[in-house]
């Protein structure tokens, strides 16, 4: 329960910054839920420099060695991206780490959306790391 409490504390800090107008690009806080870890940050929108995005990114698994296993994992991640219906997406870092990422424009974010963005995304990352380890073996565990 401590992880949820700390995530709710993070949500409250972000909401406080939104409310008082002090949320800025460069804000970054760690996020941990179960065996998944990553960060929540604020970045500028590349297409609209005046806009900010609140982004949650958690590491899930590492890409397995071998072209066949890596290819199967990537196919599985594409299918999972489809199932997530745009709420979040899996990606692969240059270091071969699979991450789950979700982001929303900061402008007009309400408390429920901030809670959902952080708690839901971290919950999915924690669930999918176990699922993918089960499917692709312990070698993909981070």
Task: Tell me about this structure.
This protein has 142 residues and is an alpha+beta fold. Helix content is 44%, strand content 31%. The protein has 3 helices and 5 strands, in the order αβββαββα. A 5-stranded antiparallel sheet has the order 1-2-3-5-4. Helix 1 runs antiparallel to helix 3 (111-136). It is elongated and about 50 Å long. The mean pLDDT is 93.
Short description:
Helix content is 44%, strand content 31%. It is built from three helices and five strands; from the N terminus they run H-E-E-E-H-E-E-H.
List the helices and strands and how they pair.
Layout: H1 2-20, E1 28-33, E2 36-45, E3 48-62, H2 67-83, E4 89-92, E5 97-105, H3 111-136
Antiparallel strand pairs: 1-2, 2-3, 3-5, 4-5
Helix pairs in contact: 1-3
Helix content bin: 40-55%
Sketch the topology as an H/E string, one letter per element.
Answer: HEEEHEEH
* Uncertain regions spanning at least 5 consecutive residues: none
Determine the number of helices (DSSP H or I, runs of at least 4 residues).
Answer: 3
Shape: elongated
Main-sheet strand order equals 1-2-3-5-4
User: What structural category do the secondary elements indicate?
Assistant: alpha+beta
Strand content: 25-35%
State Rg: 16 Å
Report, as a whole number of angstroms, the end-to-end distance.
22 Å
Q: Which whole number gives the mean pLDDT?
A: 93
Largest sheet: 5 strands, antiparallel
Total beta-strand segments: 5
């Amino acid at each position: 329960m401590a992880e949820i409490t700390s995530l709710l504390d993070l949500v409250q800090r972000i909401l406080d910054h939104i409310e008082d107008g002090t949320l800025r690009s460069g804000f970054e806080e760690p996020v941990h839920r179960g065996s998944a870890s990553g960060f929540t940050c604020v970045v500028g929108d590349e297409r609209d420099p005046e806009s900010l995005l609140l982004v949650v990114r958690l590491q899930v698994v590492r890409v397995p060695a071998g072209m066949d296993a890596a290819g199967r994992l990537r196919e599985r991640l594409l299918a999972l991206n489809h199932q997530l219906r745009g709420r979040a997406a899996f990606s692969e870092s240059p270091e071969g780490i699979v991450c789950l990422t979700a982001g929303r424009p900061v402008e007009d974010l309400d408390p429920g959306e901030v809670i959902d963005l952080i708690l839901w995304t971290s919950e999915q990352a924690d669930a999918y790391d176990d699922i993918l380890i089960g499917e692709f073996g312990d070698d993909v565990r981070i």
